[in-house]
Amino acid sequence: MENINRTQLFRAACLSLLVTSLSFGIRAGILNKLGTDFQLDKAQLGSITATAFWGFPLAVVFGGIIVDLIGMKRLLVLAFVFHLAGILLTVFAQGYWTLFLSTLLIGLANGTVEAACNPLVTSLYPDNKTTKLNHFHLWFPGGIVIGTLIVLLFNKINIGWQVQVGVMLIPTLIYGYLFSRLNFPVTERVASGVSTAGMYKALWNPLFIFMFICMFGTAITELFTGQWIDVLLKNVTDNAILILTLDTGVMVIGRGFAKPVLKRFPPQVVLLMSTILASVGIYMLSTVSGPAIYAAAIIFGMGVCYFWPTMLGFVNENLPKTGALGLNLMGGAGMFAVSLYMIVMGAHYDNILKQANGDNTIAGREILQTTLVIPLVLIVAFGGLVVYMRSKNKTQPIVNPVV
């Protein structure tokens, strides 16, 4: 890759993902405050939060279609513009609709970052895809940790949520500058000569369709629970946002050590073990109280830490002809599922509150117990995947990729 500074491009990609995750962490921390300041009920908060999750799939799928044509650099310039506009509009929000629009713009920005950066990472590290995707995606929980700590600190010293959101301008301006001056490679599919028709044909592979559907569940398990943790557990503990900080901190560490884990276990086994731990974590979050809730957060973080990057890595390693579009359809599927789930659960939360005479503790725990069904189903699905991949490897000798 002549004239390509792989290290600087990877660092800039991580910084752009940091902005994406800061938007999740800070918004999760200020969600209750937004509801109070603008007199929004949980259904409205659910709709606003969900906007980021369906703005994301719109951008990531459209970006996946055009990234091979216009290049990753142009997509990331567009992401910068969306991030800048969304952050500023949030800071100066006046009510429901300005919050809705600003969240949509940030969702579009976040999706555009993923649309460009996932294929960028696999193009920069073709022999080390799954590990580098995990290293790249550790900045998502990393940014959530930073974002929630910003919320905690600024709340402690009585600095308003507008300033907390404005902090995101700093890394946004830096990554916009870095990407503007760096040269980019072409996507891996273009470099390998796989035709557009071949890419679309690969998307109909039953294994891709299976992973696409499973992405609904892994994304909801990880992102819905994380984004709503402050609301769901507000009346269970005085430090609900610290639970989010704790479980995302575990995710950062787990993704940082992805290489030895993936050397010991194949991706499908990692996904199965992750789903079991995530199920235990959600069950504990919905039932325990006191110090045990922090143990539940750690177990939940261990469960979800490998979900997103390992799902992408598995698809790109086993179905490489799906290319950038395959990666981005996976991401889009996950975020779209989360957006719908948030809307439904926001309304369901309000209904539970009415029936329970405003008892937030009952409502939060019931939502978590409903969500627990999803990883329980995934245990069966990924158990089947493990069996399938073992039989496939016995009948079709393959060279194990470097992960």
A few lines on this structure:
This protein has 19 helices and no strands. It has 403 residues and is mainly alpha-helical.
Which regions have little confidence, pLDDT < 50, spanning 5+ residues? 397-403
CATH superfamily: MFS general substrate transporter like domains
Helix content: over 70%
CATH topology: Growth Hormone, Chain: A
Please tell me the overall pLDDT.
Answer: 86
Report the structural category: mainly alpha
If helices are DSSP runs of H or I spanning 4 or more residues, what is the number of helices?
A: 19
Shape from CA axes? Answer: globular
The main pleated sheet reads as: none
Briefly, what CATH class? Mainly Alpha
Q: In whole angstroms, how far apart are the ends? A: 20 Å
How much of the sequence lies in strands comes to under 5%
Tell me the series of helices and strands, N- to C-terminal.
HHHHHHHHHHHHHHHHHHH
CATH A-level architecture: Up-down Bundle
Say how many strands there are.
Answer: 0
Please compute the radius of gyration using only Cα atoms: 20 Å
Q: How many domains make up the 3D coordinates?
A: 1
Protein architecture, described:
The chain has one domain: Growth Hormone, Chain: A, CATH 1.20.1250.20. It contains 19 helices and no strands. With 403 residues, the chain is an all-alpha fold. Residues 397-403 have low confidence and may be disordered. The chain is globular. Helix 15 runs antiparallel to helix 19.
Properties at a glance:
single chain; 403 residues; mainly alpha; Growth Hormone, Chain: A; disordered C terminus
